[in-house]
Automatic annotation (TrEMBL):
Ranges of residues in domain SWIM-type: 54-87
Domain of life: Bacteria
Skewed-composition ranges (Low complexity): 121-135
Organism, scientific name: Rhodanobacter spathiphylli B39
UniProt-recorded name of the protein: Zinc finger swim domain-containing protein
GO molecular function, one term: zinc ion binding
Signal sequence segment: none
Pfam families per record: SWIM
Residue span of region Disordered: 113-141
């Protein structure tokens, strides 16, 4: 990379407006004990709340960032500030300097990964017949474990209903947790997760929700028993719901491919484990009208694949995973992003779209929902969203709830979120003035 980005291009990389604002407060020279740049990278140490400064670095060839701070946003505010200083001609970044060891080690590890990937691609292919036979044997063994585990789960569920859900208590909760662990052993992590959600609903006194979740579990168990009769898209739904991942290379080779300009509607990063973070990015195709979900993971703060900014449209080809309602996709050939307005969808149309998606695949954990005019409210200690078509319960924490309400000022605005059939989690909002709001991710 021979030239620095402009300030606007740097800000377009920000995961949300809060990060961009925070980065602006880190541009003071005294905040950075060390700064440096060369033909490969940009780096600096930024003072934080701890005794040691955060080590921040940018691979200029790919615009990939890394920082030792605990933030799960990519780029974090320190990396954005470093890029802003470079774009604005910070004098200490005007001439090349020698890389510190921690920067060289990071760049070397990136080069090593790229070399290993190329080497793996050059390996001679295995005997296709032998590989197919091995894969079929492995798949049959896994189905057998899942079948045995799901049959055991069905018996356990029948016992709970026979004795009555009203008697659910701590002993039943522990028994249910042991059953969920059994599902993990049976290589059906999806069953374990859904059972945990049903148990949480029971423990919270949400009996109607618990019964619905048990019903979806029974539907999965029936699907396992009847898997040989299912059409390929429905079988793909079943595998995904069981937690059986699809092969990425197979998706790239045979998945439905759509080339379009893809608008980033909203995204969120979550972490249920200190070592592993998940990023969910919802896209909308300008010409195709399709929704898509990019789902990727970062282990121990490693880099995300690709930079996607809310409100920007990117030319790209998406390869969709199989299923009755294809949403998840893999992006390839991504181009540069430009700002673009959201499509306008009224509440009735948004509800119809979400209803058709969940009817097509009842095991979908969430579907995207765009609302043209909606107002957040706080009623009876609960967060909700008022629209012309009715009121939606919201899934939010207090901080994000109050932040969204303050942003709206009590006025209708455009909203985008994930609808799970019960509550809406707002990921992004746009006011009539053009101002934007994004979900603040917290560890």
């Amino acid at each position: 990379m021979t030239t620095a980005l402009t300030r606007d291009q740097v800000l377009a990389l920000a995961p949300d407006s809060a990060s961009a604002k925070a980065a602006g407060g880190l541009l003071g020279d005294g905040q950075w004990p060390s700064l440096g740049v060369d033909g490969e990278a940009l780096w600096g140490e930024c003072k934080g709340s701890g005794a040691r400064p955060y080590q921040t670095q940018v691979d200029l060839s790919a615009l990939v960032t890394r920082c030792s701070c605990p933030s799960r946003k990519f780029p974090c505010k320190h990396a954005l500030a470093l890029l802003l200083m470079h774009a604005q001609g910070q004098p200490r970044l005007a001439t090349p300097s020698e890389q510190p060891a921690w920067v060289g080690e990071w760049l070397a590890s990136r080069r090593d990964k790229a070399a290993k990937k190329e080497q793996a691609a050059e390996q001679p292919p295995a005997d296709p017949q032998k590989a197919a036979a091995t894969a079929a044997k492995r798949e049959a063994a896994r189905w057998k474990r899942i079948e045995d585990g799901s049959a055991e789960l069905q018996r356990w569920m029948a016992d709970q209903f026979r004795h009555g859900l009203a008697r659910f208590g701590e002993a039943q909760r522990k028994d249910g947790a042991a059953m969920a662990a059994r599902m993990v052993d049976a290589q059906a992590s999806g069953l374990a997760q859904r059972l945990g959600e049903a148990l949480d609903a029971l423990a919270g006194g949400r009996h109607e929700e618990a019964i619905e979740r048990f019903g979806l579990l029974q539907l999965l168990i029936d699907g396992v028993a009847r898997r040989d009769t299912l059409a390929p898209p429905r079988l793909a739904d079943l595998r995904s719901a069981l937690g059986w991942p699809h092969d990425r290379d197979e998706v790239l080779a045979g998945g439905e491919a759509i080339t379009d300009h893809w608008l980033v509607l909203g995204q969120r990063v979550q972490s249920d484990d200190e070592r592993l973070s998940e990023r969910r990015i919802w896209l909308h195709g300008h010409d195709s009208g399709r929704h898509a979900l990019l789902l990727d993971y970062a282990y121990q703060g490693r880099d995300w694949e690709g930079a996607w900014s809310n409100g920007c449209s990117y030319p790209a080809t998406l390869h969709f995973y199989p299923g009755s309602v294809p949403l998840r996709a893999i992006a390839v050939e991504q181009g540069s992003g430009v700002a673009q307005a959201w499509p306008t969808i009224d509440a009735d149309e948004a509800i119809d779209q979400a209803s058709h998606a969940l009817a097509g695949n009842p095991w979908l954990p969430a579907v995207p929902m765009l609302l043209a005019e909606a107002t957040p409210l706080r009623q009876d200690e609960q967060w909700c969203l008022h629209t012309r078509a009715g009121t939606f319960p919201l899934r939010t924490d207090l901080a994000n709830g109050w932040s969204l309400l303050a942003f709206s000022g009590g006025h209708p605005m455009q909203l985008m979120g994930e609808w799970d059939g019960r509550r809406l989690r707002v990921l992004a909002a746009r006011a009539s003035t053009g101002a934007t709001w994004a979900l603040e991710t917290r560890a």
